[in-house]
Amino acid sequence: MPLLRFDIIEGRTEEEVIRLLDVAHVAVVEALGIPERDRYQVVNQHKKYEIVALDTGLGFERTDNFVLVSVTSNKRTLGLKQALYKNLTDKFEKELGISPEDVMINFVENSDEDWSFGKGVAQFITKDL
Q1: Strand, coil or helix: 109
Q2: Is residue 2 annotated as a catalytic residue, yes or no?
């Protein structure tokens, strides 16, 4: 599981959004070592004025290609998180032409009891997973 939420500025085609999700999934599988079918992704598209993502004084130049990726997952090591940040940013640049300055990643941790994959059951707790 992680759950990935993507906030992007509207204007990408359906094919571009699908490609973004596919590339992100490969990056997550490689970086975190999760199973291929462990894929949960949601895209929210916004008008340009609905996303304000400055650079926290780092000197980044954001464009309309900006992508905010929020990762909700159980606890991961610092090394795994850093691998994910790097792999995701590198793949977005290489395969999608998205500048690393346009990729912001946020990691939100939770625990096994915080997940139900369906049927009203916490599958990690019941040991179904």
Answers
A1: strand
A2: yes
Which residue, chain included where needed, has tokens 């609905």?
Answer: 50
β-strands 40-46, 3-9 pairing: parallel
Cβ atoms of residues 21 and 41 within 8 Å: yes
Q: pLDDT tens-digit profile of 65-82?
A: 999 999 999 999 999 999
What's the chain's Rg over C-alpha atoms? 15
H-helix or E-strand containing 95?
Answer: helix 78-96
Return the pLDDT at 1.
81
- What would the mean pLDDT of 88-96 be, rounded to a whole number? 98
Tokens of 4: 């990935």
Which of 1, 2, 7, 24 does the annotation list as catalytic?
2
- What does the block give as tokens for 16? 């571009």
**Arithmetic mean of pLDDT, 98-122:** 94
Specify whether the CB–CB gap between 29 and 98 falls below 8 A.
no
